[in-house]
Amino acid sequence: MVPAAELARRIESFQVELRAAEVDAALLLQKVDYYYFSGTMQLSYLYIPAEGEPLLMVVRDWDRARNESALANVVPCPSVRQAPVLIQAQQGRLPASLGLEFDVLPVKEYFRIQKLFPGVRLTDVSGLIHRVRSRKSSWEVGQMLQAAALAAEVYAAVPRLLRPGMTEIELAGLLEAEAKKRGHEGLLRMRSLNYEAYTWHILSGASGGVVSYLDGPVGGQGLSPAFPVGAGRKPIEAGEPILVDFGGVVNGYQVDETRMYCLGRMPDKFRRAYEACLEIERTVLEAARPGVSCHYLFGLARATAEKLGYEDAFLGPKGKKVRFVGHGIGLEINEPPYLAEGHDYPLEAGMTFALEPKMVFPGEGAVGIEDTVVVEANGCRRLTDMPDGIIEIEP
To answer: Which residues lie closer than 8 Å to 211 by C-beta, 6 or more apart?
Structure first.
């Protein structure tokens, strides 16, 4: 359960943002957002005024929401049509301006809200939500540390489970089972249209060089044109790089990490490229601290890759590169901050991000490192604190 004090801190921070933006209130419909501010994912509408107590209007299930949420005002709401009546009963009036999550709200829902609140100015508050959510509390970092500990046990199981000839998807299923036994929640939530995030991403040999729709440096063949990304049916063979990117989730909070394995000795080409990835990660983390521009850190990563001779392979093959080396993470796998081209805003204490320098060689394979870190006053602390050497397994 999310502590009452934690919810109060989040709501107060959001209300400060609402007042600064001169928005009277917000109505949140996306479940990750209303979970963040209420502590429950039961189907609800969350009304947060710029001043005063929030109102959680629950469609289903009210009994569970009342037990899960520490908010004082949790009421049943059979339909969104009842929302204006409930808001007016609690607040004494309807707002002059109402903030919505334009980045995820379907157009149909927007028109429905517009009809329910005639004369009310509807405005976008998704940026305000992102700003509040990007700064993690010590409680949130604690949840992510639990996810990291779970993931570390899953990665430690790879040498025991991996054998020559097994398919990528077979290893993925075994790792998923190992994770589920430890309480892994399975779903990586992603704030996006047409992107689904899953917890396993296992690419061996030439699979690592396959580009897909996924906005990431490595794609993978996947299982079919309907699921064209990640682990596929390719058998895993000795002497090829095996990239394991398996996210862990506990209490909704995620971590993202990547480690490299090989059945037998990793070929020198990939070994050298992996050492370059480690050097890029070290360079960026040494520079990352509050006040440093995310755009600058992306440029630093790219410049380091060029200096080491990996300009062509870094972050994807030539002509198909991604324009980020790190992404924020928490309740969703694509939160601010982004260590990316054009994201010229500073890191702040409490931000968490996954840093993932990777090298891609079409037709041959991919290597890379990824760690989730938290920004602290004097630098970054790694949450996914696992060994980062190549793990070579006797075939």
So the answer is: 219, 316, 317, 320, 360, 362
Q: What is the pLDDT of residue 18?
A: 98
- Residue 188 near residue 199, CB atoms below 8 Å: yes
How many other C-beta atoms can be found within 10 angstroms of the C-beta atom of residue 208?
29
Task: Categorize the per-residue pLDDT at 186 as very low, low, confident or very high, splitting at 50, 70 and 90.
Answer: confident
Please list, in sequence order, all residues whose beta carbon lies within 8 angstroms of the beta carbon of residue 36, skipping any fewer than 6 positions away: 10, 129, 133, 331
Q: At 92, list the tokens.
A: 């004494």
**In the structure, what pLDDT confidence band is assigned to residue 187 with cuts at 50, 70 and 90?**
confident
Residues 117-131 as b or e (16 or more Cβ within 10 Å = b): beebeebebbebbbb
The 10s digit of each residue's pLDDT in 71-111 is: 999 999 999 899 999 999 999 999 999 999 999 999 999 99
- Within 167-313, where are the H helices? 168-181, 268-287, 294-307
Contact between residue 154 and residue 175 where contact means Cβ atoms under 8 Å apart: yes
- Tell me the two tokens of residue 73: 């005002």
Pairwise CA distance, residues 137 & 187, whole Å: 22
Q: Which residues make Cβ contacts (< 8 Å) with residue 197, sequence separation at least 6?
A: 187, 188, 189, 190, 247, 333
- The residue whose two tokens read 């300009």 is 311
Name every residue whose Cβ is closer than 8 Å to that of residue 94 and which is 6 or more positions away in sequence.
Answer: 84, 87, 88, 117, 120
DSSP string, 140-187: HHHHHHHHHHHHHHHHHTHHHH--TT-BHHHHHHHHHHHHHHTT----
